[in-house]
Amino acid sequence: MNMEVQPEDLLREILVRLPVKSLLRFCYVSKTWCDLINSPYFADMHLSRAKSHRVFLIKQCLNGEKKALLSFHSDYLSPGRSIAGAAAAAPDLKLRSTHRARIKLYGTCNGIVCLAKLVPWSHSDSDKDKIYLCNLATRQFLTLPPSPFGCPDTFEDVCSTSLGLGFNPSTQDYKLVKFISYG
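^ F-box domain-containing protein, sequence as received from the core. Prediction below:
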């Protein structure tokens, strides 16, 4: 049985095995390559192939000290690379915690990471909740606009907030849900 391999199929099979950093550079090769790399089908193939190799590297300084919490992503660990080199290569989000609220990881979904600084209550616009969606592979970060919903002043001392991140495959949409509880 003679099966012809189409050049685009071969190219897709090669590119799907490459790290995201290389793929981003290859978008400049040609419009055809860029369209292929940015297609939803290619993104699904790349994500499903990468899921089995996924471990994240997150650096978090604790109380301004030099100590850090580390976990590793396979893109940063490769043969011959030291752990220190992997830590140095990890993206630095430069998100700052305050005495009233710490940056926390609220979830991951298909390579998108939800980080947030949720303030229990605030009368200042500069100290409102901050929610970030991050694609660590492409180093793209999005700060979401403030939510109009929060804890009423009468419940501010007993209010708790949490977040949930999900993906609807039928609409190809990500959803972020904010939970507020009183009591």
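The chain is about 20% helix and 25% strand.
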